[in-house]
Amino acid sequence: MKDFFEPFLYPHNLTLLGLVAAYICYRKKGLLVLLLFYYLSGNNFIANQFRSLYVGQTVSHAIAPGSAVVLLGCGGTDDKLTACASARIQHLAELLPAEGASVLMTSKHCKPYLNKLKSLIEHKQVAVDCIDGGENTYQEFNSLAARTELKPDYIVTSDFHAWRVNQLVKQHNMHSKVLSTSSQTFRELNCNGNCMFTVNLSNFDFYSKLISEFSSFAVYSLTYSWTDWYIPDTE
After folding, report:
1. Who's near 164: CB < 8 A, 6+ residues apart?
2. Residues 41-70: what's their mean pLDDT?
3. Model confidence, pTM
């Protein structure tokens, strides 16, 4: 009983109940729109359905010996990795076969990327290299496409970038498989008996990331034919 009623006393759920009470009292369409938006974007059950749909982009693959692998950059500095980059490298190191493979990383800060991966694969026959691919994912793909001799079998990214990276793989005719590093973004939230009547603030972060991904690719799709912001600076 405690587990059922306790979530209703959380501030975000008190806000939901307040919106319900306000709409019942005043019957304003604006309040109904606000109530529906707040509920639909924060409800665990609905958000978990979207998580399940999106996770379909994050298929797991075993890396075959002799494969060419590209690890996309994820920020950082010349001396320090971001948590995102570290997670990608850790995941890749676990997947690399002992028999041998080649890895190319695309980052403006190659030193920490190289040091991290090499420290994790000391006993594996893996050739590792790194290039400055550009400022963003689109520039990285154009840098890769310019290297006509490179035909990556796998491309490593984070799970919430998987859809966008898959679209770019198809656009550049790379025929690569996308390997996704898991994050807390797509961890399904516990949904008990009260899940249809409550909201969770972490779902708003989930939707903001999804909107960011789709918006980013939409801007690219609308502008790449008449602008050059996605072309890396080769100077």
Report:
1. 137, 213, 216, 217
2. 85
3. 0.87
